[in-house]
Design a protein that fits this description.
Layout (H helix, E strand, L loop, with lengths): L2 H6 L2 H20 L5 H25 L5 H20 L5 H25 L4 H20 L5 H28 L12
Helix pairs in contact: 2-3, 2-7, 3-4, 4-5, 5-6, 6-7
């Protein structure tokens, strides 16, 4: 059995992560006045899971972008652990960390999309969503918690939808089809 077939069997993992990401996004949009520590822990958990998924994709995908996915995965996991272990008391610090992470992740995804044909459209879409959200967040680091939550929530909703679509496409892929790497 090929690596693709092994990866294809895990289509449900992308769909599950997409549903969770979508749900977290809806929570951020629906409840923007929750406390900052709740948001930082939720964002930390998301970054940790996203980082682990990116590392997983870097191991099982093919192409030149594997190293970049692994790098983003490690950075995301570290940022997630920091946010979980030490939720920051100021919105500006949280905003800067999350905004920088979004921009770095976007650049890596867009560069990977240029060099790797597998999952190119999904990588470009996620990269654009992350880049726009990161720029908006960094342009106004003094955003209120509600505004920041809505921006992050919209980004997560779009991201979740793309993860779900990637998982369903992977489920329907036949053996011999290249591995889609759009989800990380």
């Amino acid at each position: 059995m090929s690596t693709f077939d092994d990866f294809r069997r895990l289509w449900w993992l992308l769909v599950l992560f997409g549903v969770v990401t979508f749900g977290v996004g809806v929570f951020f949009v629906a409840s923007p006045h929750e406390t900052l520590s709740t948001f930082t822990v939720i964002a930390g958990i998301f970054l940790l899971v996203d980082g682990l998924l990116a590392i997983f994709v870097s191991i099982f995908s093919k192409g030149d972008g594997r190293g970049l996915f692994a790098l983003v995965g490690v950075l995301s996991a570290i940022a997630g652990l920091v946010l979980i272990k030490k939720p920051f008391g100021t919105l500006v610090v949280f905003t800067l960390i999350f905004g920088v992470w979004l921009i770095v992740a976007a650049i890596v995804r867009l560069l990977t999309a240029l060099t790797t044909p597998e999952g190119r459209a999904g990588s470009i879409l996620i990269g654009i969503v992350d880049l726009v959200a990161g720029i908006v967040i960094l342009a106004w680091p003094e955003l209120g918690i509600a505004t920041l939550a809505v921006i992050i929530g919209i980004s997560l909703i779009l991201r979740g939808g793309l993860f779900i679509a990637a998982g369903l496409m992977l489920r329907g892929a036949s053996p011999g089809t290249p591995v889609a790497t759009s989800g990380a």
